[in-house]
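Usage

Read records sequentially. Each one opens with the input sequence:
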Amino acid sequence: MGAAIVTGYRQAIAESIDITCVMAGDGQMDPADLETLVGAVARGDCDYAKANRLSRNEAIHVIPPARYLGIRALSLLTKISSGYWKIGDSQSGYTAVNLATLQELDLDSLYPRYGFPNDMLVHLNVANRRVLDFPSRPIYGIGEESGIRMSRVIPTISWLLLSGFWWRIKEKYLVRDFHPLVILYALGVLSLVAGLVLGAIETGFRLAGDQIFSPAIVLVVLVAVGLQLTLLAMWLDMRHASKKPSAAVPSRATAKEQPTVSRL
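and closes with the structure output:
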């Protein structure tokens, strides 16, 4: 999935296509929504527009229950990993992106399989690109067959998002610029891990009938401090994300010239 899209993106860059759209050929993406996605990018409202099936009321009734819950879970994790806290339906690959954004991204580093949309959002955030969600009609039950199993996909993408989160924090708040939330995240996670590990060790000793002398208050303090520091870092990350990113490089298209659009 991801590798095929990247191949299309490379061709779009080579041909200087102003707006590149991704629409799957399985019939699950409503062609009527394409104009909305393209229009948002063409007007300069955003650099990357994506469909959001979960914003429609019928989504919970149309999308199979297991898949709906899986999409919800991955969307929550993607919010944390990518830093786009207001973006939902992370698994939607129905998108439109401008040429300047494709030229900015390191396409070689994007995940080549099913987790591509999630990884794409992480890289877009590091590049300070503007991303917007648009409601899209969910389409299921049309005879499509999916080989995707959420029981396998969720653990794989969760690990991808965890590594993507730390990569984003490092690149955006340490390498390209500095923000104290890096220190807060590091101290928060260390405190949480230390508290949980010590708690597990003490529990193991007590179950074995041995007594150790680590006051329970130390464990409580470590976990409490870890949670507070982590939540504070998340709040600062959300505050930083709420600031309007720098505008994208203007498109070559003028008011009298329609942008060139390619559909993958």
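Summary fields computed downstream for this record:
- Residues 179-242 form one domain.
- DSSP finds nine helices and five strands in the chain.
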